[in-house]
Specification:
Layout (H helix, E strand, L loop, with lengths): L1 H14 L2 E7 L13 H7 L2 H6 L5 E7 L16 H20 L3 E6 L5 H11 L4 E5 L20 H5 L25 E6 L4 H10 L3 E3 H7 L1 H12 L7 E6 L21 H13 L3 E7 L8 H18 L24
Parallel strand pairs: 1-2, 1-3, 3-8, 4-5, 4-7, 5-6, 7-8
Helix pairs in contact: 4-5, 8-9, 10-11
């Protein structure tokens, strides 16, 4: 049985080996400087070489998405909307391109406003996509309910068609028509949810598994419940938008909106291993690493956690790699000649 598991896992790795990396050095969706540095810092920390160690993987780095700001159209309580719009428009195109090339899309942000572009681009490739939002926050505010005006707290509300009537006209956002259904969304890791967001979650019955739920049911059961809800037949492509602040602040201190009591790194890795093992993970976003927050040790600790999450998403096995065709280990020990 163990050999059968290994062979099945190895087959999944081989079938999903084509990967496209997209960097998004963008931070205008929130107010803290530094998160735009994350794509370069994560690459410089050995992301590509570590991913290349995964058996059979084929990586193409598509470079960074950058966009010039368009003339600002004023929208009450939406900071830097024109910047966000310009970046996510280009990102949407890039994500669609990567997926159309037959590659899983790995997007490295940047703040979580980039989720507007990644999910929109994935939806343009396949309208059956389901989205798992792994985050301490629900990101479901509108400009009328947000306390900060930061768009990184609004991407889900901008994406889903059920909330489109709650928005005023948004200059520069004409390119993005909300088509994604809130029925195809689930949350894991929530522990800082605003009142309006809670109202929306309850109204639409969104499966939203908080840290309290994870403590109660365990991460394995939560994953099973999420997948059963989103895709009971097991056929739909999966998009994971992973905010590093879903991890506990002890695991990932270098991020802009830390909330204590989050996922352990072990739980985060296991979550992504299980999603990957479905064979249907087509895109993952890794966002909100901020190399200017905390000590150098904090930054390295956070980047190491981010890379571990990405490796788990792409088929790295903590069990090691099965040697094909080897039925038994050799009896000779190292000290015997």
């Amino acid at each position: 049985m163990l050999k059968t598991f290994y062979r099945h896992f190895s087959k999944v790795v081989k079938d999903s080996r084509k990967i496209g990396i997209v960097g998004v050095p963008f931070e205008k969706g929130q107010k803290k400087v530094g998160v735009s540095l994350a794509p370069k810092r994560i690459r410089d920390s050995g992301l590509i070489s570590q991913l290349m160690d995964i058996e059979g993987i084929d990586i193409k780095d598509y470079g960074d998405v950058e966009a010039q700001q368009v003339p600002q159209g004023h929208v009450e309580n939406m900071l830097e909307l024109a910047h966000v719009s310009a970046c996510t428009k280009e990102l949407s195109k890039m994500v669609t391109t990567v997926l159309n090339d037959g590659r899983m899309c790995v997007t490295i942000g940047g703040d979580h406003s980039i989720g507007i572009g990644t999910v929109d681009g994935h939806y343009n490739n396949d309208e059956n996509v389901v989205v798992l939002w792994v985050d301490a926050h629900a990101d479901l505010n509108t400009n009328k309910t947000s306390e900060s005006g930061s768009v990184h707290g609004m991407p889900v509300a901008l994406l889903v068609k059920e909330l489109s009537d709650y928005w005023p006209y948004l200059p520069t956002m004409d390119w993005q028509i909300p088509k994604f259904s809130i029925r195809n969304l689930a949350y894991i890791g929530l522990r800082s949810v605003d009142k309006y967001e809670r109202l929306t979650i309850d109204k639409y019955g969104i499966p939203a598994y908080t840290m309290e739920d994870i403590q109660r049911f365990g991460i394995d059961n939560v994953i099973k419940m999420v997948l059963q809800y989103l895709d009971p037949k097991g056929v739909k492509p999966i998009h994971v938008s992973f905010d590093i602040d879903s991890l506990d602040a002890l695991e990932a201190p270098s991020t802009g909106t830390c909330v204590r009591g989050g996922l352990t790194l072990r739980e985060g890795i296991y979550l992504m291993e299980q999603i990957y093992s479905t064979g249907r993970l087509k895109a993952i976003d890794l966002v909100e690493v901020n190399p200017l927050i905390g000590t150098e040790k904090d930054v390295n600790h956070t980047i190491d956690a981010a890379i571990a999450i990405l490796k788990a998403s792409l088929g790295y096995s903590r069990r090691g790699v099965l040697l094909e065709g080897v039925e038994d280990l050799p009896l000779q020990t190292f000290h015997n000649k």
